[in-house]
């Protein structure tokens, strides 16, 4: 492993720990200071944000998988064309 990957992993870990702490701690601290309706509103907004982020992640993963599948099919097609061209070349040379 190189240093760049290690640093990237550490930064992502610390950021996820920080975001996770604030995502859990802030709503619980707000419960004691806000009215019940405000707490419900904050809960709904937080839930919506989680669903939005999850949906975005799923969309990006699906696009990546589709792109990889398309690239793999293109490589197979190119390989078949190359094999066909070699067969034709050898049959013409003979």
* Low-pLDDT segments: none
Percent of residues in helices: over 70%
Net shape: elongated
Strand content: under 5%
Average pLDDT taken over every residue: 86
Q: Nearest-angstrom radius of gyration?
A: 26 Å
Along the chain, the helix and strand elements come as HH
User: Structural class of the secondary structure composition?
Assistant: mainly alpha
Structure summary, number of beta strands: 0
User: What kind of sheet is the major sheet?
Assistant: none
Tally of helical segments: 2
First-to-last CA distance? 51 Å
Summarize the structure.
The chain has 94 residues and is mainly alpha-helical.
Structure overview:
Helix 1 packs antiparallel against helix 2. The protein has helices at 3-31, 36-93. 93% of the residues lie in helices and 0% in strands. It has 94 residues and is mainly α. The model has no long low-confidence stretch (mean pLDDT 86).
Question: Key terms for this structure?
Answer:
94 residues; single chain; mainly alpha
Write the layout of secondary structure elements.
Layout: H1 3-31, H2 36-93
Helix pairs in contact: 1-2
């Amino acid at each position: 492993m190189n240093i760049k990957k290690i640093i990237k992993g550490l930064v992502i870990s610390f950021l996820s720990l920080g975001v996770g702490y604030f995502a859990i701690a802030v709503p619980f601290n707000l419960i004691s200071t806000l009215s019940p309706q405000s707490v419900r509103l904050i809960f709904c907004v937080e839930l919506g944000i989680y669903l939005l982020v999850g949906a975005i992640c799923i969309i990006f993963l699906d696009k990546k998988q589709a792109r990889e599948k398309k690239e793999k099919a293109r490589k197979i097609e190119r390989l078949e064309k190359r094999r066909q061209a070699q067969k034709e070349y050898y049959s013409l040379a003979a």
